[in-house]
């Protein structure tokens, strides 16, 4: 296992982002702005040498990752490892539903009618648990299920035999996942009620036993 720096980029804007719909394992295409988000991230990172690159198996993440690698001028990896382990939270029955309406259904039984209210009173992990309880099929991921998967995702990078200490890794990720990472590893330093920007950069130090936040949502 190695110590590496993760350059975590949120995928470019999608149509579901515009329509305020939950977009976990479901997909919608990048908008024109979303393509520009990816291109701008690529230009920003063009001089960073990435030994490897990872993303979820959603087209929005893969298109963003490949756009960034195409723009790279620092002899980086030319391909991306695509895996379902890196997916966003699964919203189950509420995939593609209006975000505000869904979080009302999840939080209102607890006197908390918005996602922000749930997070302010409890945390993002509790929001996941509330949503699974509200899902009539109970297919949505709760906090334990989500982190079981994401711990496997991070260990996939830790055990990548191509990596050596000090290498840089590109990871294209998702909005709620970035918030979840900040909640677990950010030591309370970040506002978790505001979603990270499409195309934004977060840097993490990934060690054999821990994750440390270097910067967030830049």
From TrEMBL:
PANTHER family: FRUCTOSE-2,6-BISPHOSPHATASE TIGAR. This is Histidine phosphatase family protein. Pfam families: His_Phos_1 (PF00300). GO terms for biological process: negative regulation of glycolytic process; regulation of pentose-phosphate shunt. It comes from the Bacteria. Gene3D superfamilies: Phosphoglycerate mutase-like. It comes from Levilactobacillus bambusae. InterPro entries: His_Pase_superF_clade-1, His_PPase_superfam, Phosphoglycerate_Mutase.
């Amino acid at each position: 296992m190695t110590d590496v720096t993760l350059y975590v980029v949120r995928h470019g804007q999608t149509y579901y982002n515009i329509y305020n719909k939950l977009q976990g394992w479901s997909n919608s295409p990048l908008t024109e702005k979303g393509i520009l988000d990816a291109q701008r991230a690529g230009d920003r990172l063009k001089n960073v040498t990435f030994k490897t690159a990872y993303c979820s198996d959603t087209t929005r993440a893969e298109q963003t990752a490949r756009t960034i690698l195409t723009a790279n001028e620092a002899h980086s990896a030319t391909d991306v490892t695509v895996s379902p382990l890196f997916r966003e939270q699964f919203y189950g029955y509420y995939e593609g539903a209006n975000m505000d309406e869904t979080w009302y259904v999840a939080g209102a039984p607890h006197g908390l009618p918005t996602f922000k209210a749930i997070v302010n009173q409890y945390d993002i992990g509790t929001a996941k648990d509330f949503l699974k309880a509200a899902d009539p099929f109970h297919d949505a991921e709760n906090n334990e299920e989500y982190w079981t998967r994401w711990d496997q995702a991070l260990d996939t990078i830790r055990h990548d035999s191509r990596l050596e200490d000090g290498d840089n890794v590109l990871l294209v990720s998702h909005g709620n996942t970035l918030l979840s990472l900040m909640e677990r590893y950010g030591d309370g330093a970040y506002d978790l009620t505001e979603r990270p920007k499409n195309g934004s950069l977060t840097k993490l130090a990934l060690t054999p036993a821990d994750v440390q936040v270097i910067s967030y949502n830049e």
